[in-house]
Amino acid sequence: MPSNSTDMTLIDKNYKELAKKYHPDTSQGDTEKFKAINRAHKMLKRELE
Length: 49
Hints:
Elements: H1 4-22, H2 31-48
C-alpha cells in the first residue's frame, strides 16, 4: 500500500494538470470545475495530513 507522501505526490500531480486545464484564464476554462477541483484538493490534503 502506498505511503501518504506517495498518495499526496500523485494527488498534487493530477491536481496541477486539472487546474491548468480548467483554469478560468485558459480557452477551456471553467470556473465551476476549477472551484470544484480546488475544493477536492484541499479536502484530500486534509485527509492525508
